Each structure stands twice: as C-alpha cells, then as structure tokens.
Amino acid sequence: MSLPDDSFTTVFSAALRGRPCAVVGLDDAPQPLPVPAWLRAADADDLALLERCQGPTLDVGCGPGRLSAALAERGGVVLGIDVVHEAVSQTQDRGVAALHRDVFDVLPGEGRWMSVLLADGNVGIGGDPEHLLTRLRELIDPRGRLVVEVAAPGVPDRAVWARLECEGIRSRPFRWAVVGADGVTALARRVGLRVTELAPVGERWCAVLEEAA
Predict the structure, then answer these.
(1) Residue 1 in this model has a pLDDT that exceeds 80
(2) Which of 33, 73, 193, 200 has the fewest Cβ atoms within 10 angstroms?
(3) Is residue 202 in a domain?
(4) Cβ-contact 52, 74 below 8 angstroms
(5) Which residues, listed in sequence order, are joined to residue 117 by a DSSP beta bridge?
(6) Which secondary structure element, helix H or strand E, spans residue 113, and what is its range?
(7) For the chain, percent helix, then strand, then coil, each to nearest 5?
(8) CATH number (domain holding residue 146)
(9) Are the C-beta atoms of residues 67 and 39 closer than 8 Å to each other?
(10) How far is 8 from 154, CA to CA, in rounded Å?
(11) 145 lies in a domain?
(12) In sequence order, what are the beta bridge partners of 80?
C-alpha cells in the first residue's frame, strides 16, 4: 500500500520529534536521516567547522539548532533560520534566536552578516546551488564569508528529486543538490566568489567562500 504524500514540513517535523526517517532519491538506496546527530550538542568536528565563522553569523537551515547554540555559547551574535516550525522551536528551546523564514524571504541584517553558515548539506537547498549562493552574497557584508560544508573529494555534483519517508508518512518530492569538494571552486567562480579555504574537518569537508578579488 503506497503512502499518501504530505508536506516536507510535516514529515521533517515528525523526524525531529523522533520518528525514524530516511531520505529517498539522494543516493542509490534510502539513507537514514541523521536526526540524532542534529539533536545532540555540537561535537569536536562541528566546533572545528564553526571556527571558520567570524562575527555575526546567520545559520541557514538551522534545524534543531545545535550549531547555532554552539556559536551562541562562544559569545557570538547568531540567528538561525529554517522553513520548519518544529526546527525553529527546538532551536529557540536551546536559548538561541531563530526565525521561521525561507532564505529567499526578506531577512534581518541583509548585507551586514559577517558569516553565513551552510552546514549538514544545506548547500543543496532548492536544488540550485548557484541561485542559493547568489542570494547569500546579498546577505553578507562585502568583507564577509560563506562557510559551506561540502561533500568529500570524488563525490560528483548533482541535483535530484528526493523525498523524506518516515513511518507511515512521506513527503512530496523536493529538489535537492550535492556539491562536492571537487566542484565548489568552479561554483564559487560562477557567482563571483572565490574559495579561500578548502579543508577536511574530521570526516567532513568545509569550504570558505569570500568575494572575488
């Protein structure tokens, strides 16, 4: 019996409340959504990633807020945004400022953020990384930076239609993208940015993008 399609927000909210969930369509086989990792406190690799954030930071797709909370604990100004109410609520429960907002909506501090964070694959939001990074350029100060988690070397860039599937519910298809370490330099160049750092962070990879000279 096939499941009825529901909204991304409904299914992702169920996952954040503890219902087992998988992503279908991103890889050859369904992949478990790593919600337990997002619900815990930031670990050493997360903190190493956050070292790249400088000054007031916008956490795009903040989820349940572990990275926003870690930035706030360092004493920095941070705002999380997410399209899912449950994610925003859980971030606020950690004592961190967060808004229910799409990154393409009007946002506080446009053009003044010193860092914008795209972690946990969020460079894939909307399935069009060029469009997303072009928007993020509007949000950062000219001296600012984008801190972007990318896939490891050898992982090809791609855009796909994916779904979330939890017990008894699944989302409608949504567009998502993967950007790898091998492709991020060319991507940055296409939107007027340059990669000033590309490095492993534990088992993950991070790119720092700044305005092209």
Answers:
(1) no
(2) 200
(3) yes
(4) no
(5) 59, 147
(6) strand 113-118
(7) 30, 35, 40
(8) 3.40.50.150
(9) no
(10) 29
(11) yes
(12) 59, 98
For residue 190, tell me if it sits in a domain.
yes
- The CA distances from residue 101 to 55, 106, 204, in Å, are 21, 8, 27
DSSP state of 90: H
Distance between CA 151 and CA 53 in Å, rounded? 19
What pLDDT digit, counting tens, does each position of 130-186 carry? Answer: 999 999 999 999 999 999 999 999 999 999 999 999 988 999 999 999 999 999 999
How many structural domains are present in the chain? 1
CA atoms within 13 A on the CB side of 174: 18
Tokens encoding 103: 């990154």
Report yes or no: 134 and 165 within 8 Å, Cβ to Cβ: no
Which helix (H) or strand (E) segment holds residue 160: the answer is strand 158-166
**How far is it between the farthest Cα atoms of the chain?**
56
Domain of residue 117: give its range: 42-158+178-211
What is the C-alpha to C-alpha distance for residues 186 and 183, in angstroms, rounded to an integer?
6
Burial of residue 29 (CB within 10 Å: 0-12, 13-18, 19+) is exposed
What is the reported pTM? 0.96
